[in-house]
Predict the structure.
Amino acid sequence: MAKLKLVYEDNPLLRKISKPVEEITPRIHRLLDDMAETMRAENGCGLAAVQVGVLRRVVVIETEPGKLIELINPEIIAAEGIQTEYEGCLSLPGKYGITQRPMTVTVRALDRNGQAFELTGSELLAKAICHEIDHLDGKLYTDCAVRMLTPEEIEEMLE
Ligand code: ZN
């Protein structure tokens, strides 16, 4: 495994739409492994392939330590409720905003063996699923944020 370089806010790649994975090859497996390592090294709870410069619909999420979720070609098929929470992004270091996301979402995706599965998550996991799928469509949380936090609020939040 290898830690990959992150793509940051001013990079136009983050605004591109990622392409579906047509075939799950050893390259995709390596991408998944490297993305998981990169996410953990950066203390993130989610990462989309575009954030490491790969325009493919591949996402890793780990909102609970040790519970790695790999999503290939993910699609949200149901959403319910609403949560208003802090949100940040590894591609926008030092920034945080307040967003409104569904409280619970169900996602359909392929696993690394090409098997379709569905997963329902609430709270932080629902937020992470929405955030990462937005990346695949060239969107950032700042697009939908209710507002951004001030430096003072960030300091307080991180205490
Ligand atoms: Zn992000």
About this structure: The pocket of zinc ion is lined by residues 89-91, 131, 135 (CB under 6 Å). The mean pLDDT is 97. Residues 35 and 78 are 26 Å apart (CA to CA).
